[in-house]
Amino acid sequence: MYDCYLYSSPPPVLTPSPPFLATTHIHSLHLCPSATIFTTLPFCRRATTEFSKKTMPMSFITVSRVDGSKAQETLTSSCIDLISSALGGRVLEFSDEWFAAAENLINPAPPIHKPGVFVPAGAWYDGWETRRHNKAPADWVVIKLGVSSGKVHGFEVDTAFFNGNHAPAVTVEGAFLHCGYPDATTVWEEILPMQKCGPSQRHIWKLSSPTTKAYSHVRLNMFPDGGIARFRLFGTAVPVFPDNPDTIIDLAHVSSGGLAISCSGQHFGTKKDNLLLPGRGKDAGNGWETKRSREPGHVDWVVVKLVCAAKGAPGYIEEVVVDTLHFRGNYPQAVEIYAINSSEQHVTSDANGWELIVPKHPCEADKEHTFPSALLQNVHGKVATHVKMVIIPDGGVKRLRVFGKRAALAGN
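User: That's the sequence. What structure does it adopt?
Assistant: C-alpha cells below.
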C-alpha cells in the first residue's frame, strides 16, 4: 500500500476576512488505493463589496474564436477543464446568484432545459443567473481550480437556454495564491479580455499561446449581469511533486499532468478523461464506456500520457490498477496494458514500440484489479511516457491508476 502525496499545502487557519468567506482547500487527492478526498465547508456566499478593480491588463497574447465543432481538435484533445467540479473545482465567492446558483457553472454535465418549471425566485435555469439592474460594472464569481495550479490555453462560456437574460459580455482574470483565499487585496491578472456573448450558444476562445504563469484561482466577470450555463477553463495542470524522489505517485493522475489523449470511442455520455479523475466517482457516468461491439476480434482502447512526459520526466511503472466500480453487466471481459517510451506528445494506438506490461487478464464487476510489480512484465529498468489500456471486447472502466516514480528524479 502506497502513501498518498498531498498536492497542495495543508489547509490554512480559517480567519474569515470579508468580502471572502474562508473555506478549506481540497488538500488530498486519490493518488493511491488508500487515499481519500478531504473537504469541509463546501459552500460559498454572496459578497458584500463592490466589483474589485484591482486588475492587471493582459499583454502579448491574442485571442481567437473557435467554432464549437472544432473544440475537440483545438482544445479538449490536449487540455483538461481545470475548474470542473469532477476534478475538485470549487466556487468560493460570487457577487450574486438570485435566480440560479453559481456552482452550476462548473458542472461537467451539459446544461439541460426545463421549460415551464418555476421556483420561488423565478424560472428554473441550469446555470448561474443574477438579478437585473446591477449597479456595479459586472457580476462575478471566484473559482478555485481543481488542481494545485494550471496554465490556461482557452475558455468556454456556454449561454445554453439563456435567451433575453444571457450575459452580454465577459472577461476572465487569474491569480496564484500559495495558500489562503482571495480577498480585497488580491491583484487579478486579465487572461481573457472583454468578449461579447450571444444568447443560447457556446462561446469558445483559444489563446495564441498558453499563459506563461500558472494560476490557482480564476474570476469570471459578466457585464453587467445576466445568465451563463457553463464555464470551462481549458489548460494543463502544473503539479507540485514531493521532494523525495522515491515517492510513489500516480503517474497517470490528472493532477500529476496525466492526460487521456485518444481512444477508440466513448459512449453513453461518458468520457475517456474520467479515467484519470480523483476518487472513484459516484456512478458509472463518471467513467469511460464504449458501445457494444458486434464484430469478432473487436477491442477498444485508450492512450494516456503520463506525468510531464513532454518535459523529459517519464516514469518507472511499479503498479497498475484498473477499476470497474459501478460497471456490473457492462464491464470488459478482459484487459491488457501496454507502455511506450516516446518523444512524441500524441502517441497513436498503433505506433511502433508499444510493449505489453499487463498480459490479458479477466475482469470482474465492481472491482479494483490490482497488478503489482510482481505481475508486470517489460517494466524493470524501463521508463514510460505513455500507457495504452485495451479492453476486450468493449465495456466500461471507472479509473486507471499507474503508480510509479518519476524517471528524471528517481533515486536508482
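The CA atoms of residues 296 and 393 lie 9 Å apart.
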